[in-house]
Amino acid sequence: MLSYFVKMKGITQSPPAVGLSEVAWSWVGAFLGIAAVAYINDFVLAGTGLIIVVGSFGSSAVLIYGAVKSPLAQPRNLIGGHLISALIGVASYQMLATHLWLAAAIGVATSIALMHMTKTLHPPAGATALIAIIGDKKIHDLGYMYVIMPIGAGVLVMLLIALLVNNIPKTRRYPEYWF
Predict the structure, then answer these.
(1) Does residue 2 lie in a domain region?
(2) What is the chain's mean pLDDT, rounded?
(3) pLDDT by residue (tens digit) across 129-142?
(4) What are the DSSP calls for 26-95, one per residue?
(5) Using one digit for the tens of pLDDT, what is the confidence trace for 59-116?
(6) 63 contacts: CB under 8 Å, gap ≥ 6
(7) 157, part of any domain
């Protein structure tokens, strides 16, 4: 029993702090990426009933602008993880809407399993599945359109900004790999 709890102490030190330049470029990327999807949401899609910004994009911004070398931040993971999770989230809601607790558990757990199986693990995508299930009427009314808009379109906009911004400084490179 003690060995179980001993594992929780960790085995390494925390990583070193990043330099001010890294902080600045992460900030610029996150600002421009979220600004782009929020602007499209507020001005381009106004009155259409469509949205392009969801809460899970905030977490994606941390990865694709702040942790650009992480395997979890690569385009395959960003796009694949969100699309798979959106699809599973919508399906879970449609099959189990009368039991939201079960739909939420199955949706997130199945999304994680499928992301593992397809090598597209992207932690914010778990929230994408959950948003499809516990979201408001506007989200539920989208049905499978949720996979395309806001999720597909939103991640493509954020990816484009990541490609542009993350490759400006000589010290950064994005992506590390595509597939």
Answers:
(1) no
(2) 96
(3) 999 999 999 999 99
(4) HHHHHHHHHHHHHHIIIIISTTTT-----THHHHHHHHHHH-TTSGGGSHHHHHHHHHHHHHHHHHHHHH
(5) 999 999 999 999 999 999 999 999 999 999 999 999 999 999 999 999 999 999 999 9
(6) 70, 72, 73, 78, 122, 123, 124
(7) yes
3 within some domain: no
| Total domains, the chain | 1
Which region among 9-23, 40-54, 72-86, 112-126 has the lowest average model confidence (pLDDT)?
9-23
Comparing CA positions, the residue from 61, 58, 65 lying closest to residue 18 is 65
Pair 85, 125: CB distance under 8 Å: yes
**Residue-wise over 8-44: b if at least 16 C-beta within 10 A, else e?**
eeeeeeeeeeeeeeeeebbebbbebbbebbeebbeee
For 127, how many CA atoms within 13 A lie in the half-sphere containing its CB? 12
Question: Rounded to a whole number, what is the distance in angstroms from the first to the last CA of the chain?
Answer: 41
What is the residue range of 160's domain? 21-166
Name the amino acid, one letter, at 167: N
The angle formed by the CA atoms of residues 135, 136 and 142, to the nearest 5 degrees, is 85
